[in-house]
C-alpha cells in the first residue's frame, strides 16, 4: 500500500483503563491502512508497565509491532507523547487516546492527507460514548471539547485549521524537527486538574517555524471516545472549562493573543450565541434540556473567562512556565511568560 509509514502512539497511565487500552490497541491492529507499529507509553506506573509488557510480549517485533515503553520525561501527557515520538520510526506519528477506539479507515484518511507535501498535521473527528448511554439533556454539543470530543462549530469535511485536537491527530516527523515536541507545563497530568491546549501551542509554534505548513482536519478519520460517568456531571464541566481558561492564558502569553485566541473569538462571538438561542428555543418548545443547555453555555463561558483572568495574572507574575523538549535533534525551548 502506497503512502507514509505511520507509527501510532497511545499514552497510558492507569490500570483502571485496562480494558479500554486493549480495545484501543485492537482498533489500531484492525486498520485497513496498517500501522507500522503501535507504541504504548506508560506514564510512571511500574505495575501497568509490567502488565502491558507481558500482555504484548509476543508482539514486540515484526510488522504491526506493539511496543511498551516508559515515559522518559516528567509525569504528564506531553512528555509521554514526546517519548513516543522519539522512539517511533514512522514518517508520520499518529496519537490515539487510551480510552478511545478508531474506526477501521482512521489511518487511511490520515495517510491520504499527506499526499500534499505541505501538510504537516492531520486530525480527525472524535465522537463521545456516554457512560449513561446517551448525552445528558443539559450538555451542549458546543462544549463537547470538555470531554475530549469534536464540538459543534468546527468545520466539516477536510479543511485547513489552526490546530488539530490531540487525542485524534497525526503529524509528520519533520514537524517535530522544525518545532520541537509537545510543551510540558500546559497539558494533562493523569487525574490532576484537567488542563489542555498543548496541541494548540504546538500547532501555532509549528506554523511559525514553517509558515508554509498546512494543518488539516478530515472528519472521516473517526474515533469513538469513552466519557465516564463523573465527566457527565456539571461539576466536571465547570472544572474543565475553568482549566481551559488557565491553559488558554498560558498559550496566549506564550505565542501571543492574536494567534492564541484566533479561533476562540469566532467560537465565542458566533457559535456560542447561536447555541444559547437554540437552547432557549427548545425551552420555549418544551423540549428536554433546552434551558439547561443555554445555561451551561453561559456558565462555561464565565468559568473559562474566570480561568483565563486567573491564568493571565499568574503568567504576568511569572508563576507559570512551560518547556518544550527537543525531539530527535529538534531544538528544546525553555519558556513561559516573560
List its salient traits.
about 350 residues, single chain, 9-stranded mixed sheet, alpha/beta, about 40% helix, 3-stranded antiparallel sheet
Write the layout of secondary structure elements.
Blueprint: E1 6-12, H1 18-29, E2 37-42, H2 46-55, E3 65-70, H3 77-87, E4 92-96, E5 100-102, H4 106-113, E6 119-130, E7 158-160, E8 168-172, H5 173-179, E9 183-184, H6 198-209, E10 214-227, H7 234-255, H8 257-260, H9 262-284, H10 290-316, E11 322-324, E12 333-335
Parallel strand pairs: 1-2, 1-4, 2-3, 6-10
Antiparallel strand pairs: 4-8, 5-10, 6-8, 7-10, 9-11, 11-12
Helix pairs in contact: 5-6, 6-7, 7-10, 9-10
Report what the structure shows:
The protein is of the alpha/beta class. Helix content is 40%, strand content 20%. The protein contains ten helices and twelve strands. Helix 2 links the parallel strand 2 and strand 3. The N and C termini lie far apart (48 Å).
Give a summary of the structure in a few sentences.
The chain is of the alpha/beta class. The protein is built from ten helices and twelve strands.
Shape: globular
Q: Report how far the terminal alpha carbons are from each other.
A: 48 Å
Helicity, as a percent range? 40-55%
C-alpha Rg (nearest Å): 19 Å
Q: Which class do the helix and strand fractions yield? A: alpha/beta
Order of secondary-structure elements: EHEHEHEEHEEEHEHEHHHHEE
**DSSP E strands, number:** 12
Low-confidence stretches: 329-338
Helical region count? 10
Strand content: 15-25%
Summarize the biggest pleated sheet.
9 strands, mixed
Summed over residues and divided by their number, the pLDDT gives a mean of 89
Amino acid at each position: 500500500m502506497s503512502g507514509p509509514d505511520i507509527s501510532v502512539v497511545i499514552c497510558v497511565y492507569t490500570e483502571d483503563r485496562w480494558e479500554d487500552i486493549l480495545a484501543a490497541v485492537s482498533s489500531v491492529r484492525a486498520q485497513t491502512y496498517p500501522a507500522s507499529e503501535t507504541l504504548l507509553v506508560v506514564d510512571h506506573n511500574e505495575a501497568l508497565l509490567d502488565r502491558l509488557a507481558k500482555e504484548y510480549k509476543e508482539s514486540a517485533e515484526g510488522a504491526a509491532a506493539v511496543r511498551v515503553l516508559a515515559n522518559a520525561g516528567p509525569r504528564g501527557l506531553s512528555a509521554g507523547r514526546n517519548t513516543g515520538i522519539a522512539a517511533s520510526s514512522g514518517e508520520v506519528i499518529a496519537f490515539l487516546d487510551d480510552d478511545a477506539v478508531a474506526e477501521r479507515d482512521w489511518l487511511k484518511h490520515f495517510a491520504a492527507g499527506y499526499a500534499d507535501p505541505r501538510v504537516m498535521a492531520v486530525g480527525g473527528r472524535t465522537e463521545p460514548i456516554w457512560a449513561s448511554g446517551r448525552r445528558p439533556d443539559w450538555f451542549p454539543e458546543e462544549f463537547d471539547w470538555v470531554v475530549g470530543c469534536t464540538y459543534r462549530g468546527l468545520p466539516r469535511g477536510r479543511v485547513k485549521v489552526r490546530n488539530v485536537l490531540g487525542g485524534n491527530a497525526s503529524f509528520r516527523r519533520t514537524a517535530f524537527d522544525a518545532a520541537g515536541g509537545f510543551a510540558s507545563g500546559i497539558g494533562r497530568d493523569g487525574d490532576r486538574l484537567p488542563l489542555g491546549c498543548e496541541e494548540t501551542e504546538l500547532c501555532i509554534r509549528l506554523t511559525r517555524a514553517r509558515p508554509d505548513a498546512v494543518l488539516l482536519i478530515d472528519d472521516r478519520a473517526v474515533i469513538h471516545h469513552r466519557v465516564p460517568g463523573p465527566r457527565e456531571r456539571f461539576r466536571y464541566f465547570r472544572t474543565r472549562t475553568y482549566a481551559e481558561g488557565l491553559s488558554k492564558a498560558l498559550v496566549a502569553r506564550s505565542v501571543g493573543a492574536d494567534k492564541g485566541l484566533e479561533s476562540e473569538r469566532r467560537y465565542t462571538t458566533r457559535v456560542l450565541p447561536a447555541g444559547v438561542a437554540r437552547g432557549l428555543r427548545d425551552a420555549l418548545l418544551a423540549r428536554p434540556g433546552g434551558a439547561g443547555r443555554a445555561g451551561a453555555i453561559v456558565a462555561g463561558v464565565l468559568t473559562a473567562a474566570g480561568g483565563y483572568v486567573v491564568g493571565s495574572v499568574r503568567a504576568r507574575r511569572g508563576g507559570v512556565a512551560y518547556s518544550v523538549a527537543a525531539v530527535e535533534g529538534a531544538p528544546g525551548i525553555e519558556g513561559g511568560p516573560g
